[in-house]
Please model this.
Amino acid sequence: MLMKNIYFDHAATTKPKEEVIREMLPYLDERYGNPSATYGLGMQNKGAIAFAREKVAMGLGCDAKHIYFTSGGTEADNWALIGVAEKNRMKGNHIITTKIEHHAVLNTCKFLERKGFEITYLDVDKQGIVSVENLANAIRPTTILISVMFANSEIGTLEPIKEIGKIARRKGIIFHTDGVQAYGQTKIDVDEYGFDLFSGSSHKIYGPKGIGFLYIRDENMISGFIHGGMQEKGMRAGTENVAAIVGFGKAAELAQINLQKKEMKKQKLRDYMVERIINEIPYTKTNGDYKHRLANNVNVSFSFVQASNVKTMLDNEGIYVSTGAACASREQYPSHVLQAIGCSEDEMQGAIRITVGEENTKEEIDYFILKLKEIIDSLRRKSLSYGVKMKLYSEK
Ligand SMILES: *Cc1c(COP(=O)(O)O)cnc(C)c1O
Model:
């Protein structure tokens, strides 16, 4: 039998596009010059970086001078929080964030707590949305930074960042957003949202891994992160990963082509999938707000099963989904996001995340649903609690 290869884990990473790889290859080979060198072999690479920076900036509707390349979304988040904390220590030591941030933000906050900073971790409602009112009430005279993610990586929920941006502006507080799940997936204009800092990553948008950026509105807000040479205006030193930057630039450029059309396509596929899952598999519930949500994300809880078993059995069929965020899925304790939205133990145990990409098809979804129904059914037949429940029903 032909092994299927159906990828539904685009929130974890994506397969680099052929055009992206083709653009990168010369920079791994004959174009090896150091971009800081002052002869042709090096200088041409400086040009390639400048060109890529322009293309990455297009995804935010900003000038290229605000884009600082990093080793990925994680580094951008670390830089945003630590850089602002360090630079503004004299003004205050209080930071506001939420309980559902990516670990790149949450664990950086934990680090800053050990350094004497005070962090408010805001609750979210049952849909995974932070309350703007609670946020406004949490502001202190010592608040130096608000960091709220654009879109949640596990449940896809879009946060009210436009309103949060307005409050931050009014209060003169620096506003950072982890935009890794949104960048290149939906139309973003930095000025419209009022971001001061924005983290993005390449490998979530069909680019190479190990490259991302931090958008910095004003260099005076933040201290440099890697100390050394004058690369990235001396704020993030170290010889540039030219091939990765060039690949990221290409991926960013491709992402902007028919952006809204691709977004609609993903949403249609996702909605079709959700409708079939809910209608055809009983004792199933979706997690996260359905309206304020990324186009490609569904997070769904199947009662009476262990999500890890569902994932493994799907894997055996050549279908890839996630149980919570990829980087957290090795951990035994349940997802901090599902916990924050008040999921029950049963709902957390049986939660899987399916994130579609622009290359997925309706046929793939049909095949997936077919296999999913078989798998859920066979797992439930082995489940004691399901057996008890069915027995109770039949006796009524
Ligand atoms: C993937 C992701 C990150 C980390 O980005 P890397 O480039 O993998 O370091 C940070 N935040 C969010 C919301 C993500 O989805």
